[in-house]
Design brief:
Length: 363
């Protein structure tokens, strides 16, 4: 599906001279729209919607000469696609996050093994969206020497600019102000975040927590905040359009991602671009790349309420620490821009020896 998170990377690839075509076989889901994603049917030049069928390959007359980057194996169409590409001797690569852990991971292990054999025998590389994905690919059966790292990269937001008035007013009254961006759900660890924050608030009554995102409805989070005695210290800002995330994060001091599991976790990229200190769990893929422990934030074990509270409390105890860490976050972000990712992909393709017989730059 079209994603505003990929817009900058696609732009950087084109500006670097790559002849990029992007085909979408699905539209923006209701869940994503609830997070503020736009569902525009107007796409940039070189991008189009196609039906989920093999004949869609013909939308690119020279598809046999191109490199095809395939985003996973979960959809039956993608499995048919890689079989066709492999049978035709076309050049293709896999690119995905790690699979979500749990019972479903084990039930689908035979499918993962089958796909890993295809990757090992026919793909030029398996592009892992982070270190967590790399480790997961190995468990599927993909050879280690077949795997290269290609994380997500976004344009981010300017450090200076407009601030969301509601969050800004809240942050003026609550310092430091922690912010979370994303769906309010069990998987994202919102119950854990509220419990950890309540522990901090008992010792530092001036702190605040802003939650930016739609409520999944899997738990009464407002009720939980009230039960924990922090109802007045938590701002439920709701879902905002993608271009309003920057203004909502800007007034805060620290961005927190308490997920039980996040294949990547784009809010860390966005928070780093805004020079924010970062806290995330070790089950967030981006935490292993955007957080340099003790330099611009902290990683904590997923599900560990006391550990999360301890790291949050460090910023409450020494308020200036967030500013120090935030400056370092901005430097880390510069290594994860779309331009930096374009260089990564170009180096990977050069390493695997991809060349385009048509004389085009590889997409």
């Amino acid at each position: 599906m079209p994603s505003h998170h990929q817009t900058g990377f696609f732009r950087a690839l084109r500006e670097a001279g790559h002849d990029l075509h992007v085909h979408y076989y699905g539209s923006v889901s209701a869940a994503r729209r609830g997070l503020g994603w736009a569902d525009s049917r107007e796409l940039p030049e070189g991008e189009r919607f196609v039906p989920a069928c093999i004949s869609s390959l013909e939308a690119c007359p020279d598809w046999r000469k191109r490199l095809h980057i395939v985003p996973g194996y979960g959809n039956p169409f993608l499995r048919r696609l890689v079989c066709r590409l492999s049978a035709q001797g076309a050049t293709w690569a896999h690119w995905s996050e790690p699979a979500r852990p749990g019972l479903r991971w084990w039930v689908s292990l035979p499918l993962k093994r089958w796909y890993a054999r295809l990757v090992n025998n026919h793909a030029v590389t398996a592009l892992a969206i982070g270190e967590m994905a790399r480790r997961d690919f190995v468990q599927w059966g993909i050879r280690r020497n077949k795997i290269d790292l290609l994380p997500y990269a976004v344009e981010g937001f300017p450090v200076s600019g407009d601030a969301d008035a509601t969050v800004a007013q809240f942050a003026e009254l609550h310092r430091p102000c922690f912010v979370y961006v994303g769906m309010l759900s069990h998987r994202k660890g919102i119950d854990l975040l509220l419990e950890s924050f309540s522990m901090v608030a008992r010792r530092f009554p001036n702190v605040g927590l802003a939650l930016v995102g739609s409520d999944s409805g899997d738990l009464d989070y407002r009720g939980l905040a009230a039960e924990l005695g922090i109802g007045e210290k938590v701002l439920f800002r709701g879902a905002l359009p993608a271009n309003q995330i920057g203004p909502a994060v800007r007034p805060a001091s620290v961005l927190v991602l308490p997920s039980r599991f996040d294949g990547w976790g784009m809010p860390l990229n966005e928070g780093a671009s805004l020079a924010k200190a970062l806290i995330a769990t070790d089950r967030c893929g981006s935490a292993h790349h955007l957080i340099q422990e003790g330099q611009n934030g902290f990683r904590v074990p997923a599900g560990e309420v006391n550990a999360l509270a301890d790291r949050m409390e460090r910023y409450a105890r020494v308020p200036q620490l967030a500013e120090v860490h935030g400056r370092h976050s901005l430097q880390v972000f510069y290594d994860h821009t779309p331009e930096a990712n374009t260089k990564r992909l170009s180096a990977i393709l050069q390493k695997v020896g991809f060349s385009n017989p048509a004389g085009r730059q590889p997409p």
